[in-house]
């Protein structure tokens, strides 16, 4: 593949960027900042990387605090599409894109009676090629929904217990006798997020094309003491998902990409979804643009190696596959037994919002169940509203924050304000986290990547940011 990135500086410049990059890497509820979790200190050596997220049937209920209700503001319902509503959606998306500076976006929204599929903007800023609905996209932390589903498949097969300690499956995890599989998937282990580690950030940003192994990623995390005792609170950490990926490999007896293909992607009907083992990127795909760089300038990150995100954020997928996946994730069908899916949905509030909770590799916000994702150059939101059987998928080709918020959050909010006014998608921005995309001129912004909100780190969908 032709490399379009500008040459990177030989040595990092101090950009004042915060570990917000870790946020995008997680891609979902990087709400540790919001929940009172300790935030890593800002590093002057370079940017932090971000990667940036239910088994409900229409009659099922979601377990967990205030987030268990259909919505804090009203019942879950959607507005039927009409020519006038479609025109409003088109205008709202274009306005949101313009406000937050998104080059291109793919949007899909479906209900049992309505379908809305649109693309806006460009997939390549150099050539001006438009976005198309069939494009493959990097989805960041939405990857976590697949890895945790792999664990649940093993639970249904009697090979893994959610309340087993991680030490039963993997040696040498600090405090592993007291950290359960469930606590890893629920983001309550207390383990340090490797994407915040300054040495990891320097290694990644100095050479975004280099491969990382899971063992290398864990080594960055395990240099640090735990942030808190297991299950003491919520804190989004990509380290949790690397460990779960290794459990799937060990117990499943296959490399993670093969296991997911055979036991998750294929049986769910996802023919165009994959976990790459290198920087390979199927065509057609959009170019991705990020300012999580050593210089603080915007670069084309299309061919950066996503191995640093692995089971936390490296999956590639498409609009149609993710529409299918949104319902599978929220209902469990046809992959997960109802009792196991019910365990997945036992979410706990992550605060400060009374209507935001995180379960086993997924979140619920204002009635919507799913995950978001963010990694350098790309963001995603994959949601399902069970009571209305509505699916929403948003894919965009930038992760550059706007006023401290993920651009994907702005788009999801604009869309849901129109189609589900009682269930408007909202994620809080974490206080005190600076965007890794801040330039050396001193601009910076707080960011919440992916889902509830975590500091951004290189490329893995570490964006709850839940991302």
Structure report:
Helix content is 26%, strand content 12%. It is built from twelve helices and 14 strands. The chain has an eight-stranded antiparallel sheet, sandwiched between helices. A two-stranded antiparallel sheet has the order 1-14. The chain has a two-stranded antiparallel ribbon with strand order 4-7. The longest helix is centred in the N-terminal third of the chain and has 18 residues. It is globular, with a radius of gyration of 19 Å. The N terminus and C terminus are likely disordered.
Number of helices: 12
Main β-sheet, in a few words? Answer: 8 strands, antiparallel
Seen as an oligomer or otherwise, the chain set is: single chain
How much of the polypeptide forms β-strand, as a percent range? Answer: 5-15%
Helix and strand content put the structural class at alpha+beta
Task: Please give a quick description of this structure.
It is built from twelve helices and 14 strands. The model is unreliable at 1-74, 431-455 and 457-466 (pLDDT under 50). It has helices spanning 20-25, 83-100, 143-156, 181-185, 198-206, 214-222, 238-252, 256-265, 310-313, 319-331, 338-344, 407-419, and strands at 28-29, 104-110, 115-121, 137-138, 289-290, 299-300, 316-317, 348-349, 356-358, 363-365, 368-375, 378-385, 390-396, 465-466.
């Amino acid at each position: 593949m032709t490399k379009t990135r500008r040459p990177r500086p030989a040595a990092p410049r101090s950009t004042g960027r915060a570990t917000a990059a870790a946020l995008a890497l997680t891609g979902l509820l990087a709400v540790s900042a919001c929940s009172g979790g300790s935030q890593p200190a800002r590093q002057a050596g370079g940017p932090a990387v971000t990667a940036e997220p239910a088994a409900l049937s229409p009659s099922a209920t979601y377990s967990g605090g205030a987030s268990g209700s259909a919505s804090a503001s009203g019942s879950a319902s959607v507005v039927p599409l009409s020519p006038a509503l479609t025109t409003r959606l088109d205008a709202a998306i274009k306005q949101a894109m313009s406000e937050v500076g998104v080059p291109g976006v793919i949007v899909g929204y479906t209900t049992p009676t309505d379908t809305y599929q649109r693309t806006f903007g460009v997939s390549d800023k150099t050539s001006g090629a438009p976005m198309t609905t069939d494009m493959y996209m990097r989805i960041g932390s939405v990857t976590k929904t697949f890895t945790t589903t792999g664990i649940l498949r093993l639970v249904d097969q009697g090979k893994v217990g959610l309340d087993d300690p991680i030490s039963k499956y993997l040696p040498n995890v600090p405090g592993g006798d007291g950290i359960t599989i469930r606590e890893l998937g629920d983001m309550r282990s207390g383990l340090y997020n490797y994407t915040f580690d300054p040495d990891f950030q320097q290694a990644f940003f100095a050479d975004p094309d280099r491969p990382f192994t899971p063992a290398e990623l864990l080594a960055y995390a395990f240099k640090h003491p735990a942030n808190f005792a297991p299950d003491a609170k919520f804190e989004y950490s990509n380290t949790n998902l690397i460990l779960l990926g290794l459990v799937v490999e060990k117990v499943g007896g296959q490399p993670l990409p093969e296991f997911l293909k055979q036991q998750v992607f294929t049986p769910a009907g996802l023919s165009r979804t994959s976990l790459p083992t290198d920087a390979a990127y199927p065509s057609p795909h959009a170019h991705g643009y990020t300012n999580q760089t050593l210089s603080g300038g915007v670069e084309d990150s299309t061919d950066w190696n996503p191995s640093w995100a692995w089971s936390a954020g490296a999956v590639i997928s498409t609009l149609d596959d993710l529409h299918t996946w949104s319902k599978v994730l929220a209902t469990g069908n046809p992959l997960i037994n109802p009792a196991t899916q019910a365990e997945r949905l036992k979410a706990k509030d992550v605060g400060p919002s009374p209507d935001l909770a995180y379960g086993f590799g997924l979140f619920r916000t204002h009635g919507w169940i799913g995950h978001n994702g963010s990694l350098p150059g790309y963001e995603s939101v994959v949601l399902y509203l069970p009571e209305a059987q509505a699916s929403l998928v948003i894919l965009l080709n930038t992760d550059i924050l706007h006023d401290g918020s993920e651009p994907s959050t702005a788009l999801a909010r604009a869309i849901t304000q129109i189609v589900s006014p009682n269930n408007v998608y909202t994620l809080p921005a974490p206080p005190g986290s600076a965007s890794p995309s801040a330039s050396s001129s001193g601009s910076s912004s707080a960011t919440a990547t992916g889902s509830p909100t975590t500091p951004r780190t290189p490329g893995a969908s570490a964006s709850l940011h839940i991302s």
